[in-house]
Amino acid sequence: MSEQPKKDYDFHKEHHTELLTVNMGPSHPATHGTVKFMLALDGETIENIEVDVGYLHRGFEKECEAQTWTGVFPYTDRLDYLASVINNVGYAMTVEKLIGITTPERCQYIRVITSELARMGAHFTCLGAGALELGALTAFIYFVEAREMVWDLIESVCGARLTHNYVRIGGLTSDLPDGFAGNVKTTFKECRRLWIDFDKLLTKNRIFLDRMRDVGGISSADAKAWGFTGPCLRAAGVPYDVRRAEPYLVYDRVDFEIPVGETGDNYDRFQVRLEEIEQSMRIVEQCLVQMPEGPVNVNNPEWRQPSKDLSSGNIEYMIHHFKNVLEGIHVPKGEAYQAVEGANGELGYYIVSNGSGYPVKMRVRPPCFPITSALPMLIKGRLIADLIPTFDMLNLIGGECDR
Amino acid sequence: MTLALVETAAKIAFVFGLNIGVFAPLLGWVERKQSAVMQDRIGADRADVFGFTIIGLFHTMSDTIKLIFKEDFIPRGADRIMHTAAPALALIPALVAFTVIPFGGHYTLWGHNVNLVVADLDVGALFVFAISSLAAYGVVLAGWSSNNNWSFLGGLRAAAQMFSYEVAMGLTIIGLVMFYQSLSLVTIVEKQNEFWHWGIIWHWPAFILYFTCAIAENKRIPFDVPEAESELVAGYFTEYSGMKFIMFWMAEFVEVVTISALCVVLFFGGHHLPFVTDAELISGLGGALYPNFANLAAMGIGILTFIVKVIILIFIQMTIRWTLPRFRYDQVMALGWKLVLPASLIWIFIVGVGILSGIMPRP
Amino acid sequence: MATKIKKIRRNVTLTLWEQSYVPEILRGMYITLEHFFINLWGLILEFAWSGREDRKIATVYYPEESVTPPPAYRGRPVLVLGADGNEKCVACGLCEAACPPQCISIIGAERANGERYPLRYTLDGTRCIFCGRCEEACPKEAIVMSDDWRNLCEYDRSKMIYEKADLLVPEEKLAGRLAFIRDKAFGKDRY
């Protein structure tokens, strides 16, 4: 048996075997968010993988050029559809930066509260879906239950469960409903109960640990080089969070911790997300205590929407309102970039205005896209079953990645 | 002769009716409802007859009706004969295995000796394993004949998994066979007449190992890698529809019942009530005065006890299925070859030492 | 505030007993069974005597029970029918211009007394995205988002083009939403 294989020994050629090519997706139970993997399999091992994104491309950036500045909001909802408030906030803040206005304090607090609620919803979904894909349906349903309760809260504020369309340039569409703080308290109590159940079901379970730990790991240098942000970067050990690195809104006034992992594998990503849910709850609770009374919109007729009394009762306001709606608000010439911490990472908006009522150019930096592009590197040479948790924990959101 | 034929026919009808008529459809309902209540949901309960839903029981009926009328689809390029034969090959072994499982004891009714097992084989335990290993053919053929890459992968996984666990499963009960000195399931049950002789008392590690192997053999979560929904769409039955699909489903459910029944027979004293022997039961029911009716009543109680025990084990299986995530394919194999197999060998050794040194008194 | 970092509990060490899978399986089963029996007891209580309150289950039996959407809820956009029997809409066309998916089209006309009104008001339900921009733009509070979320789906798209007659809803039925618009959404004290 001491015979060495020949130098140009090719197993596949010698044994007349070939790689099995399978299309995973676009319609496959694991590829939620519509993506296609072209897999070349050697038995169970993934020899090659091509990630094919773009099935959900709607031309968001071009679409926005046909809308007035305010009309863009419903379209931003459909980027990361699990956390649309954060998209709204990001876009509104970019335009506000270009205009140079600061929103009232109460508005900022409400923006933080709704953003964090949306982040909780997104993380609940991501973790639950991750559990579901590994077969733990019960854990998934517990988190869906928690998510529905959080979305009930969001619905009572924003008026919709999924496409909130809540934020406006210089403010918000509406104030918080009465009794909101009490609802938050009861909901968070239930959420924490379900969180503990979920944690007990999975975190220390050896089956789950074996599936998640040391799968899809990435070093912090690699993660930075690939442009990772958000929970995936933090799992790799880099404590980068836009909320802390470049504090926007009132994030510098609330106390929260940034969960950081070590190896950037799926288990770290899972744990980081699990911890972020808890931190989001803390942020919301602090904000509800700190929040002052007051207006939620800037008091500047040029940007804000007049109240219904004025727009119907006063002819000057009515003319102004008509011009604002028909032509759009006239954002001054220039360009601006603003990033917010989305549920998946740094969500950046880059907008160009030529002084008219419509954006001239709009560009979104989706957190998912660079993260998904690293998937082939993470998964090559692993088993086909490892693709599932890795893809889940990278958390591709079709609407955001494909835009 | 005629009487023996009638008796056997009645027993076959009972076993078959219990499995196909009661347990298989009922388990579909249990799987839905139990998982739903576990997950803070209600579960399917909308199928009704004249407004009565009976907590969703009509869903199994409407499912059957729907599946009978569904298109029986055979994909292009599939092997038609194998594609059609595979579901039957999966279902029949699961049903046949039940023939050697005693669901009651010996009873004397009007001078006729009734033994509540369809076939009292001397090698009953071996027969169960021999037959249930045949089920692998149905699954592998289903995966291969569908002409679908996902099915193919599922079939391959199923083949590897089922054959690996076959080995370990046979070894897990060797200790039990040594303990009871018989391969006949009827004898094993008879020897568990007293509560302290039940298999679970001494052989609980064997029970855990056997239960693991049996669930792996049945390909349910956490061992459902051959049909792993999120990886292989539906594994080996991706390309099946209608009644052929339901036959795989039924095979799974019948096997759930068979596993539970075998566990009851091997570890939980079969039809015996705890702390009450058969003779005590019959005499307690007035065996001296009305021997026939006392025997008949004891038979009913025995069968009922057996079914209750089976149901409890089914409930445990269902709970496990809805609680755990699934293994990865290589982890399943590693668990089978590196943990369960050595553990069962060690257990055989321990039992051998225990019996020889007299620590484990044999019944 | 200074950046606080929290290391996650990555290195979960398992004892040999825990590595044998059994304790975690038992713990998991304990949790699911706890849910199971609490829910089962709730269902039994509900079935036996009391009502919805004792049910611990999150599901709502939809056609028999239903949820009440909050006042902020944006359902089907409807036209407000005033107390005088005329629609409040004056066919100014602001909603038409504001609508991002452009699902509204209006043909205006004049009454004998000189008041404008919409001769035709068409809302394409297949294109509406329920964003509420029309309600926001309307200066007359004539189009509002109702809390109506039923019957929004049809098997035929041509049935989803709502004409004025389909859209008109009396004012008193929309009182909650109109109050919400005045108090919370587009009231005086919001800036």
List the helices and strands and how they pair.
The complex is a heterotrimer of chains A (403), B (363) and C (191).
Chain A: H1 11-14, E1 20-24, E2 36-42, E3 45-52, H2 60-64, H3 73-77, H4 84-99, H5 105-133, H6 137-158, E4 167-168, E5 171-172, H7 180-202, H8 206-212, H9 220-225, H10 230-235, H11 242-245, E6 257-260, H12 266-290, H13 308-313, H14 315-327, E7 334-341, E8 346-353, E9 361-365, H15 368-373, H16 375-379, H17 384-394, H18 398-402
Antiparallel strand pairs in A: 1-2, 2-3, 4-5, 7-8, 8-9
Helix pairs in contact in A: 4-5, 5-6, 5-12, 5-17, 6-7, 7-12
Chain B: H1 2-38, H2 58-69, H3 80-96, E1 106-109, E2 112-115, H4 124-145, H5 149-172, H6 174-180, H7 185-191, H8 199-218, H9 229-232, H10 242-267, H11 278-284, H12 291-323, H13 329-357
Antiparallel strand pairs in B: 1-2
Chain C: E1 4-7, H1 16-19, H2 22-48, E2 77-81, H3 94-98, E3 104-110, E4 116-124, H4 133-137, E5 143-145, E6 161-162, H5 164-167, E7 168-170, H6 175-185
Parallel strand pairs in C: 2-7
Antiparallel strand pairs in C: 2-5, 3-4, 4-6
Describe the structure.
The complex is a heterotrimer of chains A (403), B (363) and C (191). Chain A has helices at 11-14, 60-64, 73-77, 84-99, 105-133, 137-158, 180-202, 206-212, 220-225, 230-235, 242-245, 266-290, 308-313, 315-327, 368-373, 375-379, 384-394, 398-402, and strands at residues 20-24, 36-42, 45-52, 167-168, 171-172, 257-260, 334-341, 346-353, 361-365. With 403 residues, chain A is an alpha+beta fold. In chain A, the strands form 3 sheets. Chain A has a 3-stranded antiparallel beta sheet with strand order 1-2-3. The longest helix of chain A has 29 residues, at 105-133. Chain A is globular, with a radius of gyration of 23 Å. Chain B has 363 residues and is mainly alpha-helical. Chain B has a two-stranded antiparallel sheet. Chain B has helices at residues 2-38, 58-69, 80-96, 124-145, 149-172, 174-180, 185-191, 199-218, 229-232, 242-267, 278-284, 291-323, 329-357; strands at residues 106-109, 112-115. The longest helix of chain B is centred in the N-terminal third of the chain and has 37 residues, at 2-38. In chain B, α2 packs across α10, α6 (174-180) runs parallel beside α13 (329-357) and α8 packs antiparallel against α13 (329-357). Chain C has 2 domains: 16-67, no CATH class; 77-185, Alpha-Beta Plaits. Chain C is 29% helix and 17% strand. Chain C has helices spanning 16-19, 22-48, 94-98, 133-137, 164-167, 175-185, and strands spanning 4-7, 77-81, 104-110, 116-124, 143-145, 161-162, 168-170. Chains A and C meet through α3, α6, α7, α8 and β6 of A and β1, α2, α3, α4 and α6 of C.
